[in-house]
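Page 42, continued from yesterday. The earlier attempt failed because a stray header line got pasted into the input along with the sequence. Redoing it now with the clean sequence only.
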Amino acid sequence: MSDRDQHHQTSTRTAANDRFKRSFNTWLWGSLLTATALHFAMFMFWPDMTAANVPLDPAVTEVVDIPDEIPLPPAPEPISRPAVPVISIDIGEDITISPTTFRDNPVEKLPEPREDEARTSLIDEPGFTPMTVPPSLTNEREVRRALEREYPAILRDAGIGGRVLVHFFIDEEGIVRRTLVAATSGHASLDEAALRVAGVARFTPALNLDKLVPVWIQLPITFEVR
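This time it went through. Structure tokens are written below.
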């Protein structure tokens, strides 16, 4: 295609576009006038024309009961952080023997049983043994670690503690040979834990004058959280 032909086509398209722009106002106003005339004619010749009445079917109409306003429950309290165990064991002055005094049982009036019979009968149940020097706990740090280890986790996390009074039977070498619960904490799991801790304890032997003697003592073991 020659340059002359291309120029002719471009000129033709430009002229058609200009003609359309010039005729736009004519088409716009003509359309508006035509629409107005048609609406006027409809109102003149059909003045009573209305929209059809379409009744609602009552069978499909449902009444929805709006419930009363329901009060929202209060927000829950924030969850507290897990309790930190602070476990204690009463040592020293709290070590006791059964409430029997030397005044009531003078040493010189006590019979001298045979060694085997005395040891066998004494270990069976807590009882009084004359002594001048009571046992002393020698491994307090190890006992405290056992307390932390044996404290039932479900009670510790709930902040539940208790005090268990434990009977210890200590032989002539300071070794714990038997333990019994003298007074319960009210929680069986704490009582069992206290007995396990009691088995870890080591003592110096008790003395009656210059003689090593096996004895029963009472030791309170306390589990608590703060």
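Notes: The CA atoms of residues 141 and 201 lie 10 Å apart.
Reminder to self: strip header lines before submitting.
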